[in-house]
Amino acid sequence: MFRQLGLPAWVALYLFAIPLAIIVGASVADPLAPTSLLTLAMIIALGLAPVVLRFYHESLVVAWNSALVIFFLPGRPTLAMALVGLCLLMAVVNRAMVRQPILLPARSIATPLVVMAAIIIITAGITGGITGRAFGGEMWGARRYAAALFGIAGFFALASRQIPPQRARLMAALFFLSAVTSALGDLAYAMGWEYLFLILSTDVALLQAVSEHLGSFVRLTGVCWAAWAVFNFLLLRYGISGLLDLTRPWRMLFALLAFAGTMLGGYRSYIVLSVLLLGILFYLEGLHRTKVLAIALGVFGLTIALVVPNVRSLPLAVQRSLSILPVEIDPVARHDAQGTLDWRFEMWKAVVKEVPQYLFVGKGFGYSGTDYYLTQEAFRRGLIRASYEDTIISGNYHNGILTLIIPFGIWGLGAFIWFATAGFRALVRNYRYGDASFRTLNRFLLASFVTRMIFYFGVYGQFDLDMATFTGLLGLSVAINGGIRSPQPATDHSEAANDPEPTRTAKPELEPA
After folding, report:
1. 10 Å Cβ neighbour count for 116?
2. By the 8 A CB rule, do 461 and 401 touch?
3. How far is residue 486's CA from residue 316's CA, in Å, rounded to a whole number?
4. Residue 409: enclosing H or E segment and its boundaries?
5. Number of separate helices (H) and strands (E) present in the chain
6. What is the distance of C-alpha 466 from the center of its chain?
7. Mapped to the 3 state alphabet, what secondary structure does 418-429 carry?
8. What pLDDT sits at residue 40?
9. Of the residues 35, 170, 229, 505, which has the fewest C-beta atoms closer than 10 A?
10. DSSP letter at 170?
11. Between 70 and 497, where is the model more confident?
12. DSSP H helical segments within 159-248, as ranges?
């Protein structure tokens, strides 16, 4: 158009840039005003639109575990939630353009997820709908519904496209390493950089602020999550045998430092998770029958010999993490750890009595915000003794089975077990019959999924939060392997007998939509 008018290109550029500069300048004048934030967000989104539309699937993989949020939307949803919607929309558009029906990717996993989503939506409709504080409702719980449904929808988004084989390892690494952004929350809180919370989740900072308000010791939750991400990446990339390679000692050093970083959060659960994950990987790699077992025992013994005599000199958060072991720690850390354990046992005794009431019709995630606030105030004023009453009202039971069967009844628990079984079967098949070059990667995904499931059912679980963890691992596996792999039937029996690695000729069960 500008060429037809006889205007040079620089004039066209100025006609676009000058109004944009005026808008940005006006927004920066009052950067914390809602309208200014929205304007700046729209400008940034407009600039990033071509990149996101080109790499929307890769963006979702990278953002899945990140702490980034979209501050200008109600409830401050995570960046991954928005990208899930974009991926599903693009999958539908792509299918419509090529005039092909939309197929369920990895149907054996997709079917129980669809059933689970139906149970959640039906239960929400029966128990008063999905409302929340962000929408001005007196009933809260929309955030937990959104987290559970995001986990389910996220699987379909991740599995909607296959990751090119040449980028599979990179995408898998970024999938886990994106959780390093959680450490920025601790850094922003410590340095007073409140503006960073425009793009970061405030959950980590809130935990740190509560600890300071109660006069407790500092627990760096964000650093813990970031260190766990690095620990997972190292196992994903090298496996246990690669970390124990004595010709490359830096690998083991980084793994030990990452494991030590997880204990800065003060969570005993990360020791349990590490033991489970390493034990399962050790078995899958067959290292219990090799000399690597002696090396591993030596490294473990040396670590114990260095740590145990100096436990009392470690930060209190680290001592709290080590309270699960029979070692002498500071009484403050011991009391804090024992107090939360007793609190959970007392709460579970009270909650179990409610199971028959919600066995067939669950109570859902909705709860009264007024009741929640009044219960907290009653506890502060000493009117009630049980400190877990507000937790019971909100439904955060700290137990995987209870967070399923009370909100969604026996139907929700059954659908989840169906999903867990199908997911385990799919990961086993991808590990056995997937491309040989992805064997270490597929082994880690299988071990990580089994570890999380054992931990969920046996130690600690929260359905709405953990669902994204499970579906993320499965979605990544399906995207990398192009579906669920299966051995190709051999046409020549003699040839099949001489072929020791059927994984090289495996084909996917179903191509993703």
Report:
1. 25
2. yes
3. 50
4. helix 402-433
5. 21, 4
6. 7
7. HHHHHHHHHHHH
8. 59
9. 35
10. H
11. 70
12. 168-177, 183-191, 203-213, 221-243
Indicate the DSSP class of residue 137. Answer: -
Runs of H (alpha helix) within 127-202 = 142-158, 168-177, 183-191
Over 60: is that where the pLDDT of 23 sits? no
Q: How many CB atoms lie within 10 A of CB 329?
A: 19
Determine the pLDDT at residue 509: 47
In order of 227, 281, 444, 459, the CA distances from 450 in angstroms are: 21, 10, 10, 13
CA 477, 478, 479 angle in degrees (round to 5)? Answer: 90
Provide Rg for the chain, Cα atoms: 25
Contact criterion met (CB below 8 Å) for 384 and 426: no
Instruction: Please state, in angstroms and rounded to a whole number, the distance separating the CA atoms of residues 316 and 327.
Output: 14
- Contact present, 450 and 424 (Cβ < 8 Å): yes
Backbone φ and ψ for 68, nearest 5 degrees, come out as: -75, 140
Burial class (CB in 10 A: 0-12, 13-18, 19+), 326: exposed
Alpha-carbon gap, residue 375 to 140, rounded angstroms: 15
Percent of the chain with pLDDT over 70: 78
Tell me the C-alpha to C-alpha distance, in Å, between residue 330 and each of 87, 333, 335, 340, 344: 50, 5, 9, 16, 22
Whether 463 contacts 407, CB under 8 Å? yes
Which tokens hold the place of 52?
A: 């996101």
User: In terms of DSSP bridges, do strands 485-486 and 507-508 run parallel, antiparallel, or are they unpaired?
Assistant: antiparallel
DSSP string across 470-511: HHHHHHHHHHHHTS-EEPPPPS-HHHHHT-S-GGGG-EESS-
477 to each of 61, 481, 482, how far by Cα in Å? 11, 6, 8
The 10s digit of each residue's pLDDT in 3-19 is: 554 555 555 555 555 56
| SS3 assignment, position 102 | coil
Helix (H) or strand (E) holding 140: strand 139-140
C-alpha to C-alpha distance for 155 and 131, rounded to whole angstroms = 24
Digit-coded pLDDT (tens) for 114-173: 999 999 999 999 988 777 665 666 677 888 999 999 999 999 999 988 899 999 999 999
